[in-house]
Predict the structure.
Amino acid sequence: MTNRIPLIAGNWKMNMDHLQAIALIQKLSWTLSDADHDYSKVEVAVFPPFTDLRSAQTLIDAEKFELALGAQDISKHDSGAFTGEISGAFLSKLNTKYVLVGHSERRQYHSEDDSVIQQKVAAAWRHNLIPIICVGETLEELESEGQSAVPIRQTIAALSGHDSLGEFVIAYEPVWAIGTGKVATPEQASEVAAAIRKALSESFGEVASQTRILYGGSVKANNVAGFLLHEDVDGVLVGGASLDAEEFSGIARYQKHIVL
Ligand code: PEP
């Protein structure tokens, strides 16, 4: 048993306009609510597109839903002539708590490398946001380097060169398991999570035992159990299945029954 509060995070990717976002959050508030749901033991967060954040935040605040809000990306800059970029300053004004950094789709389609990701982590901390640093190997890397080498290298790169570390979460997401229906086994996920935690401990000390490490990649309500039972896996990052309120709540509810 650890004192790390499990996190169930839903990455909506580029889905849901602001009206659909309102409907999904309302539905989630129903499907997630039940009398004995103790949010001090499980945290649930959603990551809508930027254009939905304002509507989502207004609804969550007005209705006092126990749902944390995250953004899917952040600019490494704070303000200025960076057309199309979104500053961490804007995100924190919308009560955004988390931000995904280095999601494999950003690394792949927007050429984000370790240096950009390191700077985005710094930007998140400047604005009191908690970065969820996404790491994971491609199929080619899995075959040539094994499963842990790339996630460890990406984790250490994102956290190196800062004067001090703020709070962060690591999401281990094997690229070959994202949106493909191919799921890592719970044992594989747990082994990599443990290897990341060991590397964190060797490089940064005590913070390793307090850091939440999530698994992501084709997680659904019917396969989440195996992951959450492992001590080193502190929750899940869910893509496709987070767009369905019943399915996403099924994942969160499972977590609740484990920790209660
Ligand atoms: C993701 O995008 O972070 C993800 C894990 O997606 P999916 O659950 O659809 O594989």
Observations:
- The CA atoms of residues 5 and 41 lie 6 Å apart.
